[in-house]
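Hi Y.,

Following your request, here is the sequence exactly as I used it, all 348 residues.
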Amino acid sequence: MTHIKKYTMTVIGLLLLSFIFTACGQQPAAAPASNESSEEAAEADSGAAEESTQDKFLIGMSQANKGEPWRQAMNDQIAAAAAEHPELEVVFADAAQDNAKQVADVENFIQQGIDLLIISPNEAAPLTDVVAKAYDGGIPVIVLDRKVLGDKYTMWIGADNQLIGRTAGERVATWCEEQGHSPCNVIEIRGLEGSTPAKERGDGFREGIAGNANVEIIASQNADWLREKAIPVSQAMFQANPDVHVVYTHNDPMTEAAIISAEAAGLNLDDMFFVGIDALPTPDGGIRSVIEGRIDATYVYPTGGAEAIDYAIQILEESASPDKEVILDTQEVTEENDEDIYAQFGGQ
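Below is the corresponding structure, written out as tokens. Let me know if you'd prefer a different format.
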């Protein structure tokens, strides 16, 4: 009996020790496997966090106005590029050249919870604060064509308006010299005052004509980029200044308006030089106008619409940090190359 009791007590003791070790988790052989599994799980979680799980993105596109064919082309190119990516939804807003409305449009986009803002500002200063608000709120902002003040945006995409204006000025200076006009009288029809392209195209043009002292800007007036507004503006300018050799306008629709007014005023168009900017490859665009002999020179001004969507995808889906400024190329269009450039850009 004594041996049995001792054996029983030994078994009970061993069972108690086993219970204590189990409860305390003291299982040296199993611990490394458990820790390794935890580390692998943590690494997997970390890797998953680096990849966006979002499969839909909402983009707000705030357009300065749709009254210009060039701006409608920008919207169309954005829509076409986005249609290639089913994960993107783009909502458009037209400010109709109203700064207050464009501010409200952007505020509305922010309230909608957009993932990215594309904006082509009507004017720089009035849109600066609301663009900064979106940017400071964590919304990536792509500014197209016209600029805002400061640097509170993700990136700007556009052509070099100063260069375009300067190249146009140099072309005019050469033409005036070839024609022997002294002085060579120029009227300028400008874009919207307060918009950066209007200032840059005007400043660049003055740099370009500086090489010919005989070139003189005798009148300059804004028509806000709009063909319908440029008709009465140009009519009044020709009436006050009938001795005109060159008409320089900040976009092709205003050039076409000036041609209509010059014809109505009885001016000899064959003795005049008409210069515009935009060169859309459309049936009513600037390149066809050069081909048909109305506009003498125009300059390709890319909308940046397709590029904006390309960069939006990089920003939203790849967490990319693009360059702050992307400058698009331009080309001069004259009778020497008009057909080639029309074909190059898909004109029909």
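The mean pLDDT is 88.

Thanks again,
Q.
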